[in-house]
Amino acid sequence: MTEYQLPKAYDFKSTEPRIYEMWEKGGYFKPSNDPNKPDFDPSKKPFVISIPPPNVTGELHLGHVMFVAMEDLMIRYQRMKGVPSLWVPGTDHAGIATQLQVEKDLLRTEEVTREELGREKFVERVWSWKVKYHSIITGQIRKIGASCDWDRERFTLDDGLSKAVREAFVRLYEKGLIYRGPRLINWSPGLKTAVSDLEVEYSEEPGKLYYFKYMLAPETSEVSKTSNVYIPVATTRPETILGDTAVAVHPEDERYQKFIGRKVIVPMLGREIPVIADDYVTREFGTGALKITPGHDPNDYAIGQRHGLPVLSMLDREAKVTEIGGPYAGLDRFECREKLWLDMKVAGLVIKEEPYTLNVPRSERGGEIIEPMVSEQWFVKIKPLADPALAAVREGRIRIIPERFEKVYYNWMENIKDWCISRQLWWGHRIPVWYCDNCGKQTCTRMDPTECIHCGSKKIHQDNDVLDTWFSSGLWPFSTLGWPDETPDYKYFYPTSIMETGYDILFFWVARMIMDGLEFTGKVPFDTVYLHGLIRNEDGQKMSKSKGTGIDPLPVMEEFGTDALRFTLLVGSTPGNDTNLSLKKVEGNRNFANKIWNAGRFVINAISTLEEKSNQGTGDRNLSIFPNPQSLITWSLADSWIWARLQALVREVERLFQSYQYGEAGRQIYEFFWNDFADWYVEAAKRQMSSDGESAFSTAQTLARVLDISLRLLHPITPFVTEELWGHLRKALLVSPLVNLAKDWPEALIVASWPEPRPEEDWEAKKVAEFTLIQNIHTGIRNLRTEKRIDPRARLSATFGPGENVEIVQQQVAGTAYFSGLDPEKVIVDKAIEYNPDVHYPLVIGPEEIYFSASEWGISPKEKARIQKELAETRIQIERLEKLLGSDFANKAPAAVVQKEREKLAAFKETAGKLQAQL
Question: pTM value?
Answer without folding.
Answer: 0.85
